[in-house]
């Protein structure tokens, strides 16, 4: 995995093989950030990275100038890796080791962008809980965006606040406003 753009453009990040993750592909990540680049000034936003895994998405935001980034994952190894990588790059990424759903039920902090990359084999009901909790608890700022990454075989278009989806190979991003 590599950082696509910004201060750390081209830097490779090698995660330990033992982490239970499936990082967003470089092609999908580049396409997503091309979309976001036209909507936001990265140095003016706050980002919440749910099911953060290796921290791939958090590093990309940090490389582009975002300073308010919170990464949430329940796996200690993932949190440790994100902390070590962020420290080595001198990135300001806060980490929280927690079950994402419990975190969403308790937090009151709002963000401009909330990115969620849950396991692709989640049942649709679990995917549905993400936007439900985000909007029920008013976790997005005005003009904020929830992005859920999932397999092209999962359809989230029936969920409340759904806006649209973009497909990149086997990856799909569903956008909620």
From TrEMBL:
<dbReference type="InterPro" id="IPR004398">
    <property type="entry name" value="RNA_MeTrfase_RsmD"/>
</dbReference>
<dbReference type="InterPro" id="IPR002052">
    <property type="entry name" value="DNA_methylase_N6_adenine_CS"/>
</dbReference>
<keyword id="KW-0489">Methyltransferase</keyword>
<dbReference type="GO" id="GO:0052913">
    <property type="term" value="F:16S rRNA (guanine(966)-N(2))-methyltransferase activity"/>
</dbReference>
<dbReference type="Pfam" id="PF03602">
    <property type="entry name" value="Cons_hypoth95"/>
</dbReference>
<protein>
    <submittedName>
        <fullName>16S rRNA (Guanine(966)-N(2))-methyltransferase RsmD</fullName>
        <ecNumber>2.1.1.171</ecNumber>
    </submittedName>
</protein>
<dbReference type="InterPro" id="IPR029063">
    <property type="entry name" value="SAM-dependent_MTases_sf"/>
</dbReference>
<keyword id="KW-0808">Transferase</keyword>
